[in-house]
Amino acid sequence: MTTHVEVFNFTSSSCKKIEEFPYDLVATTQGTCANGVIHWIASRRQNNYVIVCFDFVEERFKEVPKPDCLGETSKFDLGVLDGCLCVVLPLDTSQKEFEVWAMKEYGVKESWTKLIDIEIECSGNLIPLGHRKNGEVLVEVDQKRLVAYNPREKTKEVIVLTQNQDGFHGVTYLESLISPEGHYGIRE
Fold it and tell me: What superkingdom does the record give (predicted)?
């Protein structure tokens, strides 16, 4: 199956076809926005995982270097903490202990730095969403729970628990009063 991508241009109110997407997206992943681009976990072939991003300025897909702690077949999740792209790596098959690594300088493989260890029961995805003022890390767990995790005391507080079959996706955003060019009648 071939994936086609189109980008909508607000100025011209038109779509532009972009190069074919030469990867398979991992079904459990959602797009993660960091450094002005959207990232996904994808594979070039079965069980060979990469981080792929779409650069809106260049209108092309690129691979982002992974930290050395991730092998070719390592399963991981993506998130954002302190504005940095993060990977979450399960430490064992029980999925109760995780490491969170952040790319401190975007695009530089050597800048991957281990931030924290998280001890929390998880059977699927663990997505870091941000920090609270008190230092706790907000994480989405299994698309069912929003949890505040205190890395110093290794305590957790469930903030949201959904029984919805479809679960939920926690997202972060940056407020802005700037409208996309040409949208809502604003033009240069």
Answer: Eukaryota
